[in-house]
Design goal:
Shape: globular
Helix content: over 70%
Number of helices: 12
Number of domains: 1
Order of helices and strands: HHHHHHHHHHHH
Number of strands: 0
Length: 260
């Protein structure tokens, strides 16, 4: 199997799993181990995350553009609302930034351990099952709730812990409406992915901008946009927990293949 074909497979997996709560990083690390790909570290994962970053911006383009325009609006209420939302996003991004900067080497070593990722997928499954206990309330995003979601995003830096699974499950536990959960957590992903990409670019720009990785970015962006649409519909139907059995199954199969 050629390297470019392997990269396309990983990009498709990234596009599907980045938004569905089944851990894109966990799938990539496990799949890379099964395929025998020798790349170490998080460089490839960051390149593919850039593709799904493009998908997020495209999907929420109207909301993002309106928020930016409202920052300069004459309407004081619109301006305050936009500034408040942006402030919460910045504050909620701090935990992941701290983890990414100070625990960079330990995180990178975790990305080189497929069995660790498989084990963390079991944790993701448990997190998803917790949404069965979520109350049907529609509380607004505020600073304390945003910070708690941000902390869950920081934990999800570990391969195998689904970022969307952790953040949306936390938001649902806090009583936030499903559509607001998705919008906030995926907008929150923008600075997290950008920060991670910049850290990796500083170390190895040529690796991320290779031809194979650029192809991966394009494929993951296209597939990711479709996956995001599917996830939002599932959230509206309050069926987030249905991905838990899948996470358990992938973890078990991954451990079997990686141990044998």
């Amino acid at each position: 199997m050629s390297d470019i074909f392997r990269l396309i497979i990983l990009a498709i997996v990234q596009g599907i799993t980045e938004f569905l709560p089944i851990s894109s990083s966990g799938h990539l690390v496990i799949l890379r181990g099964i395929l025998g790909m020798r790349e170490s570290g998080a460089g490839l994962e960051i390149a593919l995350h850039v593709g799904t970053l493009i998908a997020i911006i495209a999907f929420y383009w109207r909301f993002l553009s309106r928020m930016i325009l409202d920052l300069f609006a004459n309407d004081i209420a619109k301006r305050k609302s936009s500034i408040s939302f942006l402030g919460i996003i910045i504050a909620a991004s701090i935990p992941a930034g701290i983890v990414g900067i100070f625990l960079d080497e330990k995180i990178e070593s975790a990305f080189g351990c497929p069995r660790f990722a498989a084990g963390m997928l079991i944790i993701t499954g448990i997190i998803l099952l917790s949404t069965l206990l979520a109350k049907k309330t529609e509380k607004a995003i505020n600073l304390p709730r945003g910070l708690l979601i941000g902390i869950s995003q920081a934990v999800a830096i570990l391969p195998g812990i689904s970022r969307s699974g952790a953040t949306i499950s936390t938001a649902r536990a806090l009583g936030i409406a499903p559509d607001e959960c998705a919008r906030f957590t995926f907008v929150l992903a923008i600075p997290a992915i950008l920060g991670a990409a910049l850290l990796e670019l500083r170390k190895s720009a040529s690796d991320i901008l290779s031809v194979g990785n650029v192809v991966g970015i394009i494929v993951s962006a296209f597939v990711g946009f479709i996956s995001l649409k599917i996830l939002v519909r599932l959230l509206e139907g309050r069926k987030f927990w249905v991905f838990a059995p899948y996470c358990f199954a992938v973890a078990i199969v991954g451990l079997i293949f990686l141990i044998s």
